[in-house]
Design brief:
With about 120 residues, the chain is of the alpha/beta class. It is about 40% helix and about 25% strand. The protein has helices at about 1-10, 25-35, 50-60, 80-85, 115-120, and strands at about 20-25, 40-45, 70-75, 95-100, 100-110.
Length: about 120
């Protein structure tokens, strides 16, 4: 039972690509920005069907070698309202892409694989 709980928790914080997905924190975000690589901030709600579709698409895309260097930070729309507001976001299912300290694109409620891939490519 404990083993399956540990495996479930590990899967919760790992995308299908194996890329580490972490809960958003100001410190983690600042450190990733300092490193200068591509960062996806995903404003997510567990109850949101659009977010669930985006999870599947992101899991597929992040398996691709083009996106292997991405770091993903998940913001909980309901419990991290201050973070949501700091990004100027009004709705869950918002994807924000950064290259270093610069925001290079965002989208809300997009479930089109092609346009999400295009958004992710902006930070490469």
């Amino acid at each position: 039972m404990i083993r399956s709980l540990i495996i479930s928790l590990a899967l919760l914080f790992t995308t299908a690509a194996g890329a580490a997905e972490r809960p958003f924190s100001v410190e983690a975000f600042a450190a990733l920005q300092q490193q200068g690589g591509p960062v996806l901030v995903f404003i997510h709600a567990d109850w949101c069907p659009t977010c669930k579709k985006q999870d599947i698409i992101l899991g597929e895309l992040l398996k691709e070698s083009d996106f292997a260097n991405y770091s993903v930070l998940r913001v909980d729309f309901d419990s991290q309202r201050d973070v949501v507001q700091s990004f100027g976001v009004k709705y869950q299912s918002t994807l924000i892409v950064f290259r270093g300290k610069s925001e290079v694109g965002r989208s809300t409620a997009d479930t089109n694989r092609g346009s999400i891939a295009t958004l992710l490519r902006r930070a490469l």
